[in-house]
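Intended use. Records like the one below are meant for learning the mapping from a protein sequence to its folded structure. Do not use them to infer anything beyond what is encoded.
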Amino acid sequence: ATFDHRTGKLYTSHQVYHIDGTLERSGELLSDGRYQTSYYWSDGKTLSRQRIFNQSRAYVSEKLFRENGSILADVVQGQSDQREIALYWPNGARQATYSTNLVNGARGTYYAEDGVTVTCEFYRSYWASEEIYYNSAGQVWQKRLTYPGNGSLTISLFASDGQLVAEQFWKVRPAYNDRPAYKALSSVALYRTGQTRPYLTITASNGIVTVPNGVNEAGQDASGAQIFNPAYLVEPASLPIPEPSMTERGAPKLVYDYE
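Structure written out for the chain above:
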């Protein structure tokens, strides 16, 4: 390592090696006074993470890389605990963007592999979680609203013209200690085009649906007329949205270097 001759304390460059001699991390002073620290995969050559610290050696930003060298994420530290995060698909296209802080939680957008088409917008906080899903034409087809405090999940489903067609009401409970996770359907409200009140509400007990009298499980009455779509009684698919905290898993300390 080399040190700033004025203080003898701050690095102007440094290298840290594994026991087998491969490079673990290195750093160098940039021309504008900031410091760049680079971390490497097990080969000691391929970048896994590269951080920038300001002239006072406070954390400013970083880039994360996959083991094949493709970029995984960009992180920019804002004022206080504000942080902006961008994730990338393996092809380099934008996968997701986040804005996070401890008070307001995380808000962001998730994209298809073209990096342009929005597939989901989402919001996460301690009190609530909301996800809005879009089809390939850019129309909303599903909304999810979760309140962890009271264990409720509401899933709203929309037709291709944007009209609300069904609302599912679920009771949810995360796994805790030896208690398994729990999710059960409570009821489903069904809507006709242009109506704000449901024409039919179907109830469920412990997730078991009770269909109305005279209607079979396929949603048809005795004459074969379709009363409701049975697909609306089943939880629709949702995307496995990567959480912004993934950039912090296994991350080294947020200091420009350490023992």
